[in-house]
């Protein structure tokens, strides 16, 4: 793997490889000594243009458990805010000898621009770009679904026959997009439930079913319900009238959660708006995988860094998967 | 007085082989077997002669944005592309909303000498859309402005648009609208559609262009004015213009070369060379605008040449500027998309790239290749194969979407008022020896 | 390229039986023994060896596997490898005698990686090494405790171990 920029171009085989290696990584985390010497001498730079303590810490933990050196670079803005440009920042990292750059940016496509520009030779991991993709989030979500379903025998399994309902602001969600492509590649069935204003105008090419009615979608008894965070500011751009109305129509309250099949799980990428898109009862119930998702995130990111950095590296800059 | 020119054996509008004699900047004779003693003979066998191209929509960036382009560098790029006249859009700094600025632009064009620069005046003060600029003063100035536009911005307030349409009737002016509803395109980055949904880039829906065009043609009809629509890009817009013309509305429309060839699929790599306003649209839209140009619904091709320095394009998509340079590639792109597909022939190319733009812009002396008329001529080698490269760019900026792409043809000679600006495929460096007073 | 067979099915079976006796002899019985095979063929051999040792000692000897991929020192010289399973038997390895089982001993680097892997899992009382084929050319000070056969080889030659469970046949060949 040269870069991990999106799940759109991730084939089933590579996706399963990531998930299976993540299982191995997860196993090592229950040993007495959690640290592995695998990436000794490699430098991983966390290049975060957007604040995100949670994701950054997750990547940092993953890199350090593999004995890589971690540099945290909190860069400010883009040319718009007249900070240092993406190009200048990238070239600084190259001069520092970064082997991998984990980048989070508010502009969709920024990681791809970085990876294909020729400014750096490091491998690029997209930690979230604008409203485009967040591939490691989708991978840890798929890992979580698989783990709950197959337990210790997860290795090698895809998600064929698993029905996942994703609820919320799909239009602005990189988590939703990454999950749509990855879940489809793994054979899962995906339903999107959103207010009509918060789904992209043309998703006719997406491998999903789109519904506006949450109760109808939940009546089908999905295996996993993934709640997306809603930003209250969207109210002011007329995407929905009030928080109360949003919550009533598209929130996972206690009643809706209780109505789910016994084995169904409730997921959320975090941070949660308790009481808005998800009730506390749902978030704290045994169905909820919110905390496991965090733990699994470290294992999945260890797997990604391993696959990116451990093997021999092809030095073809143009080749982006 | 400069040397006489004899263009020998050229295919006039791609048809019959002719000789053309130019003396003192005028076409003095056309026929077969012509000569003049002491004249320079240009062997034009195999070349197509077109009336000197006229671009109704160019951004020369001067005054104010000389890092991107100047009147000198922009007109050099124009000449290289076969253009003998360019209409300069007013989104400069200061904005060309007064007689003073437009006269300055005119003077810069005259000093450079590569092409005739006809300034376009802003519709509103500062292009802010609030108050009309002194359109009358600009019309009466030495620059004789007849085309007014707030291009870059839409004249959104319907009342201001109505007043502007009415006001320019007093001196035969025309309002050229950049049709883009600002409320429907806040933060927009690319065409709204299948690709934007996937890429997570905010969409610029076709309806934001079409709804403004619909409103403006109805306003123009109501007040009995002429209207010109800039860079029309969607199938729906073509339908609206067709409908309006059928009703007898005095509307004209332009399409850019890039909208005749490129689609939003090219945005998938987030390469900001393809970022432009209005954005690249779908293949259906490309086919529709080609049809519209072929059947006359769309009257002309205009480049919307928009230079930007490298750092404004070599960055993440969201931070990149909108625009592509287009003067040097325009004729070749029209050749590729319209002539090679059989939709236009060379006389039609002359019509859409020279005659009609000159007529809409009321630019005397341009648009025809006739006896007694000023010698503004473009000689084009349609058989030259080639790849468009940096070497083909002669402006200050290189933000072209065609770099590395195969484009046919080559501008071999450009003659501006009898002065050779492109000499056998090479841009003339120093015009001072050859220039003569117009 | 020519190949010659150095061990056949019967040779391999005899070697494993002899190794099983040697393990019990050196350990003075079965107390505290744990066999850990190194994937891929070391695991197959450990799965065969375990029952043999158990049979002789008349008590069940725990058998597991130890993946060393994440501890290798040569990862960047090869295309990315996928790790294999590590299964430590119930009771773990603390205070026990771990016998590593592998098919071929060559540079010794795999065993070094295995020792590092063991260290992250627990603290055995002792670690021993059982090898089917020792082909020499050590690059580290590592030596086996139990050897099926010593096969001197040129470093350019390839030693191939094939086992019925994976390859359909039991044999060890050298290709030059």
Secondary-structure map with pairings?
The complex is a heterotrimer of chains A (321), B (438) and C (176).
Chain A: H1 12-28, E1 43-48, H2 53-65, E2 69-74, H3 86-96, E3 100-105, H4 110-116, E4 123-129, H5 135-150, E5 163-167, H6 174-185, E6 189-193, E7 209-211, H7 214-219, E8 224-227, H8 243-250, H9 254-258, E9 265-267, H10 280-284, H11 290-309
Parallel strand pairs in A: 1-2, 1-3, 3-4, 5-6, 5-8, 6-7, 8-9
Chain B: E1 5-12, E2 17-23, E3 26-31, E4 40-43, E5 48-51, E6 53-58, H1 71-80, E7 83-88, H2 99-112, E8 116-119, H3 135-140, E9 147-149, H4 158-167, E10 174-177, E11 190-191, H5 194-199, E12 203-204, H6 206-223, E13 226-229, H7 235-246, E14 250-255, H8 257-261, H9 283-294, E15 300-301, H10 330-339, H11 346-360, E16 377-381, E17 410-416, E18 419-423, E19 426-427
Parallel strand pairs in B: 1-4, 1-5, 6-7, 7-8, 9-10, 10-13, 11-12, 13-14, 14-15
Antiparallel strand pairs in B: 1-2, 2-3, 5-16, 16-17, 17-18, 18-19
Helix pairs in contact in B: 4-6, 6-7, 7-9
Chain C: E1 3-7, H1 9-27, E2 33-37, H2 41-57, E3 63-65, E4 97-105, H3 109-121, E5 126-134, E6 146-150, E7 158-162, H4 164-167, E8 171-175
Parallel strand pairs in C: 2-3, 2-4, 4-5, 5-6
Antiparallel strand pairs in C: 1-8, 7-8
Helix pairs in contact in C: 1-2
What's the helix-strand series of chain C? EHEHEEHEEEHE
What's the number of domains of chain C? 1
CATH class of chain C: Alpha Beta
What spatial form of chain B do the alpha-carbon principal axes imply? Answer: globular
Question: What is the distance, rounded to the nearest whole angstrom, between the alpha carbons of the first and last residues of chain C?
Answer: 6 Å
Total beta strands of chain C = 8
CATH architecture of chain C, by name, is 3-Layer(aba) Sandwich
Task: Return Rg of chain C in Å.
Answer: 16 Å
List low-confidence stretches of chain C. none
């Amino acid at each position: 793997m040269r870069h991990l920029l999106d799940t759109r171009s991730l084939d089933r085989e590579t996706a399963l490889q990531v998930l299976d290696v993540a299982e191995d990584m997860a196993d090592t985390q229950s040993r007495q000594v959690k640290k592995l010497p695998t990436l000794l001498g490699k430098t991983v730079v966390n290049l975060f243009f957007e604040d995100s303590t949670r994701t950054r810490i997750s990547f940092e933990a993953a890199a350090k458990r593999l004995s890589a050196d971690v540099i945290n670079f909190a860069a400010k803005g883009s040319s718009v805010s007249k900070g240092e440009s993406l190009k200048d920042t990238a070239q600084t990292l190259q001069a520092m000898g970064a082997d991998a750059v984990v980048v989070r940016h508010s502009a969709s496509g920024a990681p791809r621009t970085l990876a294909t520009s020729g400014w750096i030779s490091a491998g690029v991991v997209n930690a979230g770009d604008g409203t485009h993709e967040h591939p490691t989030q989708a991978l840890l979500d798929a890992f979580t679904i698989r783990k709950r379903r197959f337990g210790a025998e997860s290795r090698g399994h895809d998600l064929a026959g698993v029905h996942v309902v994703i609820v919320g602001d799909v239009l602005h969600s990189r988590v939703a997009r990454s999950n749509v492509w990855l879940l489809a590649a793994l054979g899962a069935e995906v339903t999107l439930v959103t207010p009509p204003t918060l789904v992209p105008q043309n998703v006719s090419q997406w491998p999903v079913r789109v519904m506006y009615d949450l109760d109808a979608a939940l009546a089908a008894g999905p295996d996993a319900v993934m709640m997306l965070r809603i930003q209250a500011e969207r109210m002011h751009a007329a995407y929905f009238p009030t928080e109360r109305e949003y919550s009533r129509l598209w929130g996972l309250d206690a009643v809706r959660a209780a109505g789910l099949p016994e084995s169904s799980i409730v997921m959320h990428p975090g941070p949660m708006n308790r009481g808005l898109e998800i009730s506390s009862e749902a978030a704290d119930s045994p169905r909820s995988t919110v905390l496991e998702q965090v733990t699994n995130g470290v294992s999945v990111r260890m797997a990604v860094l391993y696959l990116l950095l451990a093997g021999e590296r092809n030095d073809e800059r143009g080749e982006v998967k | 007085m400069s040397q006489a020119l004899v263009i020998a054996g050229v295919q006039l509008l791609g048809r019959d082989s002719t000789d053309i004699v130019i003396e003192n900047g005028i076409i003095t004779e056309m026929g077969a077997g012509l000569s003049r003693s002491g004249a320079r003979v240009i062997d034009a066998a195999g070349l197509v002669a077109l009336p000197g191209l006229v671009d109704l929509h160019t951004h020369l960036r001067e005054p104010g944005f000389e890092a991107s382009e100047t009147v000198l560098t922009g007109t050099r790029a124009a000449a290289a592309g076969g253009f003998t006249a360019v209409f300069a859009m007013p989104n400069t700094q200061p904005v060309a909303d007064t007689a003073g600025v437009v006269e300055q632009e005119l003077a810069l064009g005259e000093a450079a000498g590569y092409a005739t620069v006809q300034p376009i005046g802003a519709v509103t003060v500062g292009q802010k859309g609030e108050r009309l600029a002194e359109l009358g003063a600009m019309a009466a100035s030495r620059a004789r402005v007849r085309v007014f536009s707030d291009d870059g911005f839409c004249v959104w307030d319907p009342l201001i648009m109505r007043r502007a349409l009415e006001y320019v009737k007093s001196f035969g002016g025309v309002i050229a609208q950049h049709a883009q509803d600002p409320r429907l395109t806040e933060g927009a980055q690319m065409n709204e559609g299948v690709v934007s949904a996937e890429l997570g880039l905010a969409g610029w829906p076709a309806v934001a262009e079409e709804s403004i065009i619909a409103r403006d043609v109805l306003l123009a009809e109501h007040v009995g004015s002429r209207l010109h629509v800039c860079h029309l890009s969607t199938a729906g817009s073509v339908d609206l213009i067709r409908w309006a013309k059928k009703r007898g509305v005095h509307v004209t429309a332009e399409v850019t070369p890039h909208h005749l060839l490129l689609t939003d699929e090219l945005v998938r790599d987030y390469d900001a060379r393809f970022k432009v306003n209005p954005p690249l649209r779908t293949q259906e839209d490309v086919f529709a605008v080609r049809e519209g140009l072929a059947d006359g619904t769309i009257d002309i091709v205009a480049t919307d040449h928009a230079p930007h320095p490298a750092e404004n394009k070599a960055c993440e998509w969201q931070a990149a500027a909108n625009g592509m340079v287009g003067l040097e590639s325009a004729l070749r792109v029209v050749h590729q998309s319209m002539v090679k597909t059989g939709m236009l022939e060379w006389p039609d190319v002359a019509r859409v790239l020279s005659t009609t733009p000159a007529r809409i812009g009321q630019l005397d002396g341009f648009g025809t290749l006739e006896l007694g008329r000023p010698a503004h001529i473009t000689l084009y080698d349609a058989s030259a194969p080639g790849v468009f490269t940096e070497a083909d760019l002669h402006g200050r900026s290189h933000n072209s979407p065609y770099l590395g792409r195969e484009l046919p043809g080559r501008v071999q000679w450009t003659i501006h008022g009898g002065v050779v600006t492109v000499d056998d495929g090479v841009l003339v460096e120093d015009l001072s020896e050859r220039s003569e007073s117009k | 390229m020519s190949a010659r067979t150095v061990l056949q099915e019967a040779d391999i079976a005899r070697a494993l039986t002899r190794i099983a006796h040697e393990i019990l002899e050196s350990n003075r019985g079965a107390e505290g023994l744990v066999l850990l095979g190194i994937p891929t063929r070391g695991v197959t051999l450990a799965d065969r060896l375990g029952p043999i040792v158990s049979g002789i000692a008349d008590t069940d000897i725990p058998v597991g596997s130890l993946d060393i991929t994440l501890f290798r020192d040569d990862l960047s010289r090869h295309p990315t490898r996928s790790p294999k399973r590590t299964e430590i038997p119930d009771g773990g390895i603390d205070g026990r005698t771990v016998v590593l089982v592998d098919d071929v001993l060559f540079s010794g680097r795999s065993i070094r990686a295995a020792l590092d892997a063991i260290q992250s899992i627990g603290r055995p009382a002792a670690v021993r090494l059982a090898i089917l084929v020792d082909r020499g050319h050590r690059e580290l000070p590592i030596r086996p405790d139990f050897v099926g056969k010593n096969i001197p080889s040129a470093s350019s030659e390839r030693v191939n171990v094939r086992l019925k469970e994976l390859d359909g046949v039991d044999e060890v060949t050298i290709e030059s």
